[in-house]
Design goal:
It contains 8 helices and 7 strands; from the N terminus they run ααβαβαββαβαααββ. By secondary structure, the chain is an alpha/beta fold. Helix 2 packs across helix 3. Bound molecules: S-adenosylmethionine.
């Protein structure tokens, strides 16, 4: 991916794409204000959405769960409550490639394990986890299919992959509100917070992200089954879930999983 490639004069952030090192640098930069701006921009509703994502992961006491692109760790913390209460206890690992986000996550939840990892090349064995989740992170993957294939790989047969993401509502009045909010208000908040590039990137990354059927197709390409999605918050938030089949899943020669 190139910052200026593709024959377009628009900066990459305006097109909702950034090379991986720039995505990482951007999250390092905004880490300090991330939680506050999340609460402001979602009116605090993001906690509720993460609870629903954790419900969909369908994990319980003693399970091991991986939260990919964990950021400041809120979804990992939500999941930790679900796997506790057994002997031996369950475990949630929060993985991210931004050291600054990880540092905040560790401060927030000292008892949880937060580790550096690139979602496109997860440093975990096949089938290690009962479920893998990602909250508002998949949109930033430079290769979405690869990121989802990695999430599916590390889950054991019968385990779930859950993706919580912002999506573009199709019907008014929410579609009108969404345009106004993301195109006008969010970049303004970013300017006030001192990082207009990051908050220009956000609405554009949502616009270029596949709509729910497209994301479901990507999950199917990763070999997942029983793929469903729920739209909430008037169609602004999509929660996708898929299950890794019980039998072995064949991979094609380039490492991509077949349709
Ligand atoms: C919008 S934040 C979401 C954080 C958190 N999951 C949440 O629910 O608030 C996106 C996070 O994805 C991480 N990220 C993006 N691409 C990644 C990749 N390829 N590997 C690991 N982390 C990645 C960023 O560093 C950032 O912390």
């Amino acid at each position: 991916m190139s910052a200026t490639g593709g024959g377009s004069a628009a900066p990459a952030a305006d097109r909702g794409t950034l090379p991986e090192p720039e995505v990482r640098a951007m999250f390092d930069r905004i880490a300090r204000v991330y939680d506050l701006l999340n609460s402001v921009m979602t009116a605090g509703l993001h906690h509720q959405w993460r609870r629903r994502a954790a419900d969909l992961a369908n994990v319980g006491p003693g399970d091991r769960v991986l939260d990919v692109a964990t950021g400041t760790g809120d979804l990992a913390i939500e999941l930790a409550g679900r796997v506790a209460g057994s002997q031996p206890p369950g475990e949630v690992i929060g993985s991210d490639f931004s050291e600054e986000m990880l540092a905040l996550a560790r401060r927030k939840a000292a008892g949880l394990r937060f580790e550096w990892g690139n979602a496109l090349d997860l440093p975990y064995e096949d089938g290690e986890f009962a479920a893998s989740t990602v909250g508002f992170g998949a949109r930033n993957f430079s290769d979405l299919d690869r990121g989802i294939a990695e999430m599916a790989r590390v889950v054991k047969p019968g385990g779930r992959v859950v993706i919580l993401e912002i999506t573009t509502p199709q019907k008014p009045p929410l579609s009108t509100f969404f345009r106004l909010w993301f195109d006008r208000v969010v970049p303004l908040i970013g300017k006030v917070a001192g990082d207009s590039q990051a908050y220009d990137y956000l609405p554009n990354s949502v616009k270029r992200f596949p709509e729910p059927p497209g994301l479901a197709a990507s999950m199917a390409r990763a070999g997942l089954e029983d793929i469903r999605w729920i739209l909430t918050a008037g169609g602004i938030i999509a929660l996708h879930v898929g299950t890794k089949p019980a039998g072995p899943v064949a991979t094609s020669s380039n490492g991509a999983l077949p349709r």
